[in-house]
């Protein structure tokens, strides 16, 4: 007797996934404008295989919206502070619509002054950071962004958690290829990946976190249930994480990762913090030469044997998704269709 097994995964086009997620967000309390930005962001992560911040995040977005912790209809307030400084109050909404609201002004300032920064506060960032910087490099600019999250990382040499997972993302144009982009948590592993490992019943590599007694553990559940993460690279990652707290919170006017209390909002998942972006116009120093110098650096890296640049895996996955559709867990897709009301 032949048995028909249902495929565990399905494929969906990027535009279709964006439309689906847009409907999900609108059905759960965001404005159509915010939904469009979040849907594009989340679908981009899924398309590029950035799974810890793709559709895996949807339940977290929806529970945080339902809890009233974040305003899904917030309208950001942009202030033109100085020749190289834009401030955005995200009005307790998501960070990406705040970035979008002031993006054109930031680029105009960077092109005029050579450098400009955007300080976003009163914002919730629940996504990968590379989508915030990569588009700047695609238009010839260098961009750096940092965002702080929620207390779950023990500073190097300390006993208890204080820092967030605090990612840093960087993007630079290069002459004959895709921009150079990296995006990394300053914790040894992103919180999202710990959740995914716990869900799959997998153990983590050594050195990622500690249990509730402060003892090293490879059990993701022990980290999530009263334990904590460690910074990557000991004192070095810890210093970078501290820098992110200073730039993303102290400088922007946002909360430090330890400063907000979501206990009164059961279901809240999104860190209420800040984000800093610095954008540089390299044509001010080197004309077109910067992108050529980037290309030369990459060439030399390859010449000494490097096979994988940061971003390569993501762009390979993107190309495959564009050719074959985005591969997504079938049950997850059916659930999204259900909550989108399709
Ligand atoms: P990874 O450790 O998976 O990757 C970090 C960077 O290194 C990526 O640019 C990646 O490129 C690159 N990379 C990975 N492995 C290699 C390798 N062997 N050789 C060369 N380059 C490599 O990311 P993290 O786990 O640190 O972070 C995951 C995501 O979580 C990020 O997008 C981050 O923004 C997000 N995050 C968001 C937070 C928030 O508050 N919003 C908080 C913390 C994390 P590639 O992508 O091509 O693999
Ligand atoms: O994966 O560490 C993480 C994270 C925190 C907030 C959003 N993502």
UniProtKB/TrEMBL annotation:
Judged by the first EC level, this protein's enzyme class is oxidoreductase
What GO terms in the biological process aspect are recorded for it?
proline metabolic process
Keyword ATP-binding part of the UniProt annotation: no
Tell me which UniProt keywords the record has, alphabetically. NADP, Oxidoreductase
Question: What would be an example GO MF term here?
Answer: delta1-piperideine-2-carboxylate reductase activity
Q: So what EC number does this one have?
A: 1.5.1.21
For this protein, what reaction is catalysed? L-pipecolate + NADP(+) = Delta(1)-piperideine-2-carboxylate + NADPH + H(+); L-proline + NADP(+) = 1-pyrroline-2-carboxylate + NADPH + H(+)
Q: Report the SUPFAM superfamilies cross-referenced here.
A: L-sulfolactate dehydrogenase-like (SSF89733)
State whether keyword Oxidoreductase applies. yes
Family membership, please give it.
Belongs to the LDH2/MDH2 oxidoreductase family.
Relate the assembly described in the record.
Homodimer.
The protein's name: Delta(1)-pyrroline-2-carboxylate/Delta(1)-piperideine-2-carboxylate reductase
Organism, by scientific name, is Pseudomonas azotoformans
Taxonomy, top ranks, is:
Bacteria, Pseudomonadati, Pseudomonadota, Gammaproteobacteria, Pseudomonadales
